[in-house]
Structures are given as structure tokens and as C-alpha cells.
Amino acid sequence: MGAVDDRAKAKIIMKTFLYANKGKWFTSKEICDFINNNPLGVKGGVTPTGLSKLVNGHDRINRKRKSGRNVWLYGVGVNG
Fold first, then answer.
1. Which of 2, 45, 60, 62 is 20 to 30 A from 24, alpha carbon to alpha carbon?
2. 3-7, 19-23, 55-59, 64-68 — which one is most confidently predicted on average?
3. Domains of the chain
4. Burial (Cβ within 10 Å: 0-12, 13-18, ≥19) of residue 52
């Protein structure tokens, strides 16, 4: 089995984090801080912009804009 690249690892970690915290909203910065501050095998670190590109359009992750700014919230099992 081949090695999983950092982008795929970050996506898997984010989805796992959101499902473990089902029903709660998190900013991409909060998720990135979790990924970057724990020894989870993502070498280069993750930025909020990079993370949003990974999950943009993912059908099971809910996304909403926070208070009209360019800050997005992500969650699973939450409405609107």
C-alpha cells in the first residue's frame, strides 16, 4: 500500500475531527490549529485557505459564512 499524501491526510483528519464533534461548527483556522498542533503526520502544515480548497463542494460537510466576513464555518450533522 502506498503512502498517503499530505493533502489526503489533511482531508481525512478534518472529516474525522468534524464527525467526532458532530453538531458543532468550527472555523477553518480552528481545524488547522488542531491539525498543525498535533503529531498527525502532516508534514508541511495546513493553512485555512488550503483546507477550504480541500473540502470545497464536499457533500457531507456543511459550510456557512460567519457574519459576512471571509470566514467560513464547517460542520457535520448541523443545519444552516
1. 45
2. 19-23
3. 6-75 (1.10.10)
4. middle
